[in-house]
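Extended Data, panel c. Modelled sequence:
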Amino acid sequence: MCTVLLRFDPDATWPVLLAAVRDEYLARPWEPPAEHWPGRFGGRDSTAGGTWLAVDPARPSVTALLNGYPPLPPAGDRPTRGSLPLTPFPLDDDVLQSFDAFHLVRAEPTEVAVTSWDGTAVTHRLLPPGDHVIVNQGVDVNDFAPLRAAGNPDPKPGLPPRAAWGDWIGLLSGGEFTGAAERPLLIRREVDGLLYGSGSATLVAIGEPGVRYDFTANPGPDAIWDEIGLPD
């Protein structure tokens, strides 16, 4: 996953609103979001068995993984970062240092924490209330104007996605980042002869009415969104 857009307001009806885009080699196989692990819902990477985003409706929480940038030099077999969203939180720093570089975002109604490992140091930070943009280069190094302009949805479970999410569907239809890494939100390009791009997108809301989780495998203006069924 390469982008997380987050609105955190612990006093709101929906304290956590999260929009995320996963960028990956498009030929890499994956399974759609479901309860692939007991009590955890998310898409499953068929190659390494982990995930890029996990929803725990019982806690409730959502945990999202981004690869860090720049990548670490090759150094033998490191464990898959896709295990991190499924691992009890927090982990010891010495364990985290065995992985490739990453940012791990964990959002709950009362707290949003970001753990980062860049090959030199593990850092832990709590995000203040407000809008935040997390990309491979880090937290709030970019600005995304559509996020600042988006209204607050009321994504009650069971509503059709576009009625539930309002402006937040549009957030994931495109737009441009400014700041440290200027680029479009949705990408598609060839890397080493393989097609790389934005293969899926996710919307998650956590609040007093419950947890809402929506997913699309064709992000963009023509995205088809589906609500992922979660236990009450």
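The radius of gyration is 16 Å. This feature is highlighted in the accompanying rendering.
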